[in-house]
Every structure is written in structure tokens, then in C-alpha cells.
Design brief:
This protein is mostly beta strands. Among the domains are: 52 residues, Monooxygenase (Up-down Bundle), CATH 1.20.1280; 139 residues, Neuraminidase, CATH 2.120.10.80. Helix content is 13%, strand content 38%. The protein contains 6 helices and 26 strands. It has a 4-stranded antiparallel beta sheet with strand order 3-2-1-26, with no helix packed on it. The longest helix has 13 residues. The N terminus is likely disordered.
Length: 359
């Protein structure tokens, strides 16, 4: 019995004691303190200890910061460089320096592809589909965990796609239309359930392959297809999740949707790049498009993409030239909008898509 007791004591001594997040504080109090550390320091916080690293990368950390409204939004841009390779950059819009930083470690197989989409769900960025000169459309999906700063392969699309649209609605990713090896697949869309990690395929003849832009407004997905060079007619359809049906979008609204779009506080804005860069706003009450103002040609480098953080719209163009304007306080001087700019990189990278991720 004495031998068994001594052996038991030895095993107990060998069991590692769990290290506290902050010495002398219960973990729930430590979480309350650590969650207030600004996002730009999370990389350093992960180096403090293994427990801090695991905490910062956890769903608990992500959920707590969102619940307490401590989360911060960064902008991610998918670009193509002069070597025709994809690259990815991130911008902290609240940083005093406000400069774009590269994200390393993109999946090697995706670097040369064209027609890929990116989408954000939770604390992950998803890189979907694409094709190449000697490669058909692929169903591959990669996920970038922004907390862990790591890429991994995710569940493949139901349908191989390239040059398609991606949006998030009701906690699911929608991959819509585009080109595929089968003509019938161009009239379909896939939905991704992150909890089951599975894709489900659907079809509707109102979806056409040539998609140029998309957005979510009032709980519906809108997609705009290529404009006819003969009639200049803009074709767009809208998805109503309650019925699961795609139908033609309102003609008045669609008539002014001739550039990248973004929704801010339920209001639709479009950047008209046909002659300079002019921001337009859709007024639901009067059902008309009204100009907000022009952006200085010295600051923008079309073609541009739009993304919104709060009431601020970021206009991101070639070489990641970035102009920020607060539409809640928008003013103009002789037709030019009052804005601030972020210096562009010393490159001519083309911006393919921009998304926001909040942690």
C-alpha cells in the first residue's frame, strides 16, 4: 500500500499545473483585461505564453470581443501583381501610420489562378475557386484564420467555379454563377454552412455566368451581370432567402449600378468610373440616384473597389491607392468630395477584391 501511495504521489507531482493567463488573477477576470488589448498588439500577446496564444486564437476570444463591442475591423485586399500572381494585403484603418501590409503564406497552388473570389465569415477569410490557362475551374477552398495567421484547406465547393460572385447572408457563404466545366453549372449557386463544413448546390435559370458585382442589402443578395455593349442595358437579379428564388431586380435601382457598390447603414453607394470617379447614392424614398460628389483624380487610380468600415467608405485602386471618406459627414468643395488618402504602395498591383474582417 505504501508503494502504491508513493507512486500516486509521484504521478501527482508530475502532472503539470495549468498556468494562469495573468498571475494572481482568475481566468475570467484576466480575459476581461486582455480582451481590451488593441488588435494590433495581438501578435505580441500570443508570444507571452502558450495559454495566451491559444486564447487569442480561440472562438471564446472572438465572441467575447464582439459581445463587449471591443472588436476592430481591418481591411483585406486580394491583388494581382506584375508577374500575374495573387497577393494579399491588410490595412488597419485606425492605425496612425495607416499603411498596407503583406500577408504571407498564400496557398502555392492558387497563386497563378484567375477568377478567384474571397469572402469573410467569422474570423476567417475564404479563398475560393479559380482557373488557369491550362487548368479548368476548380472547387478548391482555402481558409485564412486571421487570429492564428495561418492558411488551411477547407471543404471544397459543390461546383467548380471561376469568375463568380461571393456574398455572406444569414451566416452562410453564397458562391454564385460564374464559369464552370458544365454549362448548366453557370445557372447555379452553392451555400456553405460553417457549422457542418459542407456546401449545398442549388440552381436557378435567372442566374447568368457573366457576373461583375454583388452586394447584400435589406437581407437580400443582388448580383449584376455584364452590361450589353450594344444596348448598355444593365441586367441584375436579386435573391430572396425566404422563397429561395432569384428574380429580376428593380429597374430604377439597377439603372445606376454601373460600378463597384457598397452598402452603408442600409444605403447603397456606387462608384461611377465612366468619367473620373464620382460617388452616387441610391435614395429609396424617391427612387432615384443622386450624386454625392467627385473624388480628386490626383488621389484615385481606377479601376477601384469599395469597402465600408462604419460610415466610412474606402476607395481602393491600382497599387492600393486608398481614399477614405465619411459619408455621414460628407462635404464637397466645388463638386469634389472632402476626403483623406492613404499612400499607395510603390507598385501597380491590380486590386481584385476587398473585404472587411472584424475581431
Amino acid at each position: 500500500m505504501e508503494d502504491q501511495d508513493s507512486a500516486s504521489d509521484g504521478m501527482n507531482q508530475m502532472e503539470p499545473t495549468q498556468q494562469s493567463l495573468i498571475c494572481g488573477l482568475p481566468d475570467d477576470i484576466a480575459l476581461l483585461c486582455l480582451a481590451r488589448v488593441p488588435r494590433k498588439y495581438h501578435r505580441i500577446l500570443k508570444c507571452v505564453s502558450r495559454r495566451c496564444r491559444d486564447l487569442v486564437c480561440s472562438e471564446e476570444w472572438y465572441s467575447y470581443r464582439r459581445k463587449q463591442k471591443l472588436d476592430e475591423t481591418w481591411i483585406y485586399a486580394l491583388c494581382r501583381d506584375k508577374l500575374e500572381q495573387f497577393c494579399c494585403y491588410v490595412l488597419d484603418p485606425s492605425s496612425p501610420r495607416r499603411c498596407w501590409m503583406p500577408i504571407e503564406g498564400l496557398p502555392p497552388r492558387s497563386l497563378k489562378r484567375k477568377g478567384m473570389c474571397i469572402e469573410v465569415l467569422g474570423k476567417k477569410i475564404y479563398l475560393l475557386g479559380g482557373c488557369g490557362w491550362f487548368e479548368d475551374a476548380t472547387d478548391e477552398v482555402y481558409a485564412y484564420d486571421a487570429s492564428a495567421n495561418a492558411w488551411s484547406e477547407d471543404a471544397p465547393l459543390s461546383t467548380a467555379r471561376c469568375y463568380f460572385a461571393c456574398e455572406v447572408l444569414n451566416g452562410k457563404i453564397y458562391a454564385i454563377g460564374g464559369l464552370s466545366s458544365k454549362s448548366s453549372d453557370s445557372h447555379s449557386w452553392d451555400t456553405y454552412d460553417p457549422y457542418a463544413s459542407t456546401w449545398t448546390s442549388h440552381s436557378d435559370l435567372n442566374i447568368v455566368p457573366e457576373i461583375e458585382d454583388s452586394f447584400v442589402m435589406d437581407g437580400k443578395i443582388y448580383i449584376r451581370c455584364c452590361t450589353s455593349p450594344v444596348t448598355s442595358h444593365v441586367y441584375a437579379v436579386v435573391y430572396e432567402p425566404s422563397s429561395g428564388i432569384w428574380q429580376h431586380a428593380d429597374a430604377d435601382m439597377v439603372s445606376g449600378w454601373r460600378g463597384p457598390a457598397v452598402v452603408v447603414d442600409g444605403t447603397l453607394y456606387v462608384l461611377d468610373q465612366s468619367s473620373g470617379t464620382r460617388l452616387m447614392m441610391w435614395k429609396k424614398e424617391t427612387r432615384e440616384w443622386v450624386p454625392v460628389g467627385r473624388l480628386s483624380p490626383l488621389l484615385t487610380r481606377p479601376p477601384c473597389r469599395l469597402v465600408a468600415v462604419g460610415t466610412s467608405i474606402f476607395v481602393i485602386g491600382k497599387g492600393l491607392s486608398t481614399v477614405m471618406l465619411d459619408v455621414g459627414k460628407a462635404g464637397n468643395v466645388e463638386g469634389a468630395m472632402v476626403s483623406s488618402s492613404i499612400p499607395n504602395l510603390s507598385s501597380d498591383d491590380d486590386v481584385i477584391s476587398c473585404k472587411c474582417l472584424t475581431i
